[in-house]
Q: What sequence folds into this?
DNA sequence: TGCATTTCTTGACACCGTGTCAAGTTGACA
DNA sequence: TGTCAACTTGACACGGTGTCAAGAAATGCA
C-alpha cells in the first residue's frame, strides 16, 4: 500500500536480479541480497516469506520488465506457418539470455523446492502455449511433417527450445547467439516440417 | 585393501543407488544412506570424504555395472553412417533410464557443487565422443547435411541426446520410451542429414 | 591362542544457511 | 503529541554436513 514499502520491494528484487546476473549465483543468500540492497536480513522477511518466494517474485518482476509476451506476440504476425515458426524461435531464443540470470536460480531451486518447481513449470507452460500456437499455424498451412500430431510436435518444439539446450549450445559448446538462433531455426524446421522449406 | 572394506564400500554405493532410484531423491541424506546400508553415519565418512564424492562414486559404480561402453560399442558395428546414428541413438537412449536415478542426483548437485559438475561433465564427455564418432561415420558416407561441420553436428547431436531432453519428453510430456526412441532417431536424422533417409 | 590393526560405533560438537521471535528505533503524518 | 508502518539489532532453533575423540568389535597374523 505505502509507496515506501513498494519501493523497497522493487529495490530488493532488482538487487537480487543483479546479484544473480553478475557474479556467481551461489552468492545470493538472503544475507547477500540484504547487504547489497542496503537493508537488514530480517527486513527481507518482512517483504517475502522465504527465499523461494523472493526468487520467484524476482523472475516475475523481470518478466514484467522485459515483457516476454509482447515479443512473442510479434511472432504471431508472420504470414506463413513456417515464417511464424522462425519468428517464434527467434523471439524466444533472444529472450532466453535476457532472463537467464534469474531463471538459472529458479531452475536450480526446482530440483529441491516444490514451489520453485511450480513457478518454473508455470513459466515454461507459457512458452509451451507459444509452441502450440506455432504448431497450429504449421498445421493450417499443411506444413507439419507426416506422422507428427499436434501434441507430439508441440512437445518436440518445446523440448528443442528449452533453456537447458540454449545453455548447452551457447555456454558449453561455445556457440554465438547467432549460431544458436540460425541452427535452432533450421533444426525446428527440419524436426517439424521434415524438409527444409527455406534453405 | 581388505575385502571387508571393499564389500562395505560396494554395499554403500548400491544402497545409495537404490535410494536414489526408488523413492524421492531428496531423501538421500548421509544419514538416510547410512541407515539403509546398516551402518553408522560416521562410517560413511571413513569411505567417502563427503556427499559429493559418494554420489560421484555411486554413478561410476553404476556405469561399470551396466557397462555403457559395451552398449555404445555395439552401435559401431552398423554398416552405414545413418544406421550407426540410429544404433547410437537407440543404445544411448536405452541407457538413460537405467542410469537416470543416479544421474539425477549428480545433475542436481552440479548446480551448486563444482566437483559434482566436473564428474557430470566427464560423464557427458563420454557421450560426446560417441556422438563425434557417429558424426564421423555420417561424414564418411557423405550423409551430413550441407552447411554443418563436424563440430556443429556433434554439438547438436549431443544436445539432442541430453538427459534433460529425455526427462522433458518421457517424464514431463509423458512419452513412452519407444516414442522417445523413434522420434529422437527421426529428429537426429533430420537434424544431421537434412532429409529422412529411412522413412 | 593372543595380540595388533583395521573397521566400525557412539556421542559430542562446530559450521552454515534458513527462518523465527522479541524489543527497540526511526520517520511520516494527522 | 501520539500512532502506525517500516525497519533494526540481537538472539535463537532447526536441519544437514562434516569433524573429532574414545572405545568396541571383527579380522588377520604370529
A:
Amino acid at each position: 500500500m505505502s509507496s515506501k514499502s513498494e519501493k523497497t520491494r522493487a529495490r530488493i528484487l532488482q538487487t537480487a536480479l543483479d546479484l544473480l546476473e553478475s557474479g556467481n549465483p551461489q552468492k545470493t543468500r538472503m544475507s547477500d541480497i540484504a547487504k547489497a540492497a542496503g537493508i537488514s536480513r530480517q527486513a527481507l522477511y518482512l517483504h517475502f516469506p522465504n527465499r523461494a518466494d523472493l526468487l520467484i517474485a524476482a523472475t516475475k518482476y523481470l518478466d514484467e520488465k522485459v515483457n516476454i509476451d509482447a515479443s512473442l506476440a510479434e511472432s504471431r504476425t508472420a504470414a506463413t506457418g513456417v515464417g511464424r515458426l522462425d519468428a517464434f524461435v527467434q523471439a524466444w531464443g533472444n529472450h532466453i539470455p535476457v532472463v537467464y540470470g534469474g531463471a538459472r536460480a529458479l531452475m536450480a531451486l526446482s530440483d529441491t523446492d516444490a514451489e520453485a518447481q511450480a513457478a518454473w513449470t508455470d513459466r515454461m507452460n507459457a512458452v509451451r502455449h507459444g509452441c502450440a500456437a506455432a504448431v497450429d499455424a504449421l498445421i493450417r498451412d499443411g506444413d507439419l511433417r507426416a506422422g507428427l500430431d499436434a501434441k507430439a510436435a508441440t512437445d518436440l518444439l518445446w523440448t528443442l527450445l528449452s533453456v537447458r539446450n540454449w545453455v548447452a549450445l551457447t555456454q558449453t559448446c561455445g556457440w554465438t547467439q547467432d549460431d544458436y538462433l540460425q541452427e535452432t531455426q533450421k533444426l525446428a524446421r527440419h524436426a517439424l516440417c521434415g524438409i527444409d522449406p527455406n534453405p
